[in-house]
Amino acid sequence: MLKVGLTGGIGSGKSTASAIFRELGAYVFDADKEAKHLLDTHDTVQSELIAEFGTDILNPEGHIDRKKLARVSFQDENHQQQLNAVVHPYLFEVIDRRFKKISKDEKHTIFIVDGALIFESGLDQHLDYVISVTSLIKNRMERALNRGTLTREDILRRMDLQWPCDEKVSMADFVMKNDGPPEELRVQINEILTKIV
Predict the structure, then answer these.
(1) Pairing between strand 2-7 and 129-134?
(2) What is the dihedral of CA 10, 172, 170, 75, to 10 degrees?
(3) What's the CA gap between 191 and 178, in Å, rounded?
(4) For every residue of 76-141, which 3-state class applies, written as one string?
């Protein structure tokens, strides 16, 4: 089973691409969702983050408040690196365990890791291929705002903290442009699958 990274900046359309890959029979590991699960359930991750960022990231019940953590960790590159240094090693373990489990099932030929920080985290070194999804900045902003969870300022700050799209494109094995309807993305995905499977 191939292990393939799917990456792209905020609002690039990774989630849409993941949904199409899933429809076409790939197993999709949502790194962002799994990282949030670690924040909510993993005692060691929680205690390491409290040690790193202090009790300001806790809610009144003493659990990590993801919004407070995001405010602290996305204020600059240094804080984001501190967050990633805590979470990524545990996330990599989850990816490895899930990959072994899914491999044994023999139901899928591709294991997709959907993650914004594939290159930044060094995960690309452990993958067979990396696909980068790109999109015009106006489309990315519109999609990110439509989710209704972040302000324009928050989105711009996160864009600044992620590697530039050009850099991800230059390092990726395959690049998909996502400025048209989902059908165009599906065509590009099918073309990639015919090359790698």
Answers:
(1) parallel
(2) 30
(3) 14
(4) CHHHHHHHHHHHHHHHHHHHHHHHHHHHHHCCCCEEEEECCCCCCCCHHHHCCEEEEEECCHHHHH
Closest CA to 115 of 189, 190, 35: 35
**Residues 106-123 pLDDT 10s:** 899 999 999 989 999 999
Q: Residue 193 phi/psi, 5° resolution?
A: -60, -35
Task: Give all strands of the β-sheet with 110-114 in edge-to-edge order.
Answer: 27-30, 110-114, 2-7, 129-134, 174-177
Kindly give the interhelix angle for 66-73 and 43-53, rounded to the nearest 10 degrees: 50
Dump pLDDT digits (tens) for 132-153: 999 999 999 999 999 988 899 9
Distances (CA, A) of 122 to 5, 169, 171: 11, 15, 12
Which is nearest to 9 in space by CA: 130, 129, 112, 115? Answer: 115
Tokens 């690049």 found at: 175
Read off the pLDDT band of 157 (50, 70, 90). Answer: confident
**Which two three-digit tokens encode residue 109?**
């030929």
Q: Residue 64: is its pLDDT beyond 90?
A: yes
Does pLDDT of 74 surpass 90?
no
- Give the pLDDT score at 47: 95
- Cβ within 8 Å of residue 84, ≥6 positions away: 117, 120, 121
Contact between residue 92 and residue 98 where contact means Cβ atoms under 8 Å apart: no
